[in-house]
User: Fold this.
Amino acid sequence: MAYELHYWPTIQGRGEFVRLALEAAGAPYVDVARGAESAGRGVPALLGAMDDPAQPHPPFAPPFLKDGALIVGQTAAILHHLAPTLKLVARSEQARVWTQQIQLTVGDMVDEAHDTHHPISVNLYYEDQKPEALRRAQAFCRERLPKYLGWFERILERNPGGSRHLVGGKLSYADLSLFQLVEGLRYAFPNAAQQALARTPLVVALNARVAGLPRVAAYLRSERRLPFNEQGLFRRYPELDLP
Assistant:
């Protein structure tokens, strides 16, 4: 049975972290909101699943995943649920907990990157909060971005399984998520990302290895991989980047 991934159809967003895991594992899945409404899919199907009054565990927002009768929301929780079946996490409890810690920190950085262009409210346009966005982005680019990437670099340096992966000696969903994070930063803040990544060579090497994985590479070339745009989490506003 195919998994059902529910996420907005026009952006990568948080759903892309789940999508990368499914693609890397070769798992069958349906991207519900990207399907045709005539086939019972599309955004109405997403909204119907989210607002189903018969659902005792309603998800707060996309992304959420349907695995048979089970519905799982929140990116990190979805990946934690999928990873053992997809073989994207080590078997030990210690490794599973550590992988989840890394994923949650990736999520923290994603939120901070998003808040550079929406520092006051998601219900306001970027143009309504540009002075605040500039202050937030300057702090993010100069302080937070290097701090986060430096932490990921230290994890790779100290990994007992070697520096090719974040956890142990095999690919995990944390590796895939760090890849997506770096790609988003390179899109939104090319100058700041380049400066920080120049000091984190192991992160750069991991990013390249993930991009070269056969299934990931095929996905990145496919129409299923939407381009970054100015409606998603990572938005390129040159005035928010470092000079």
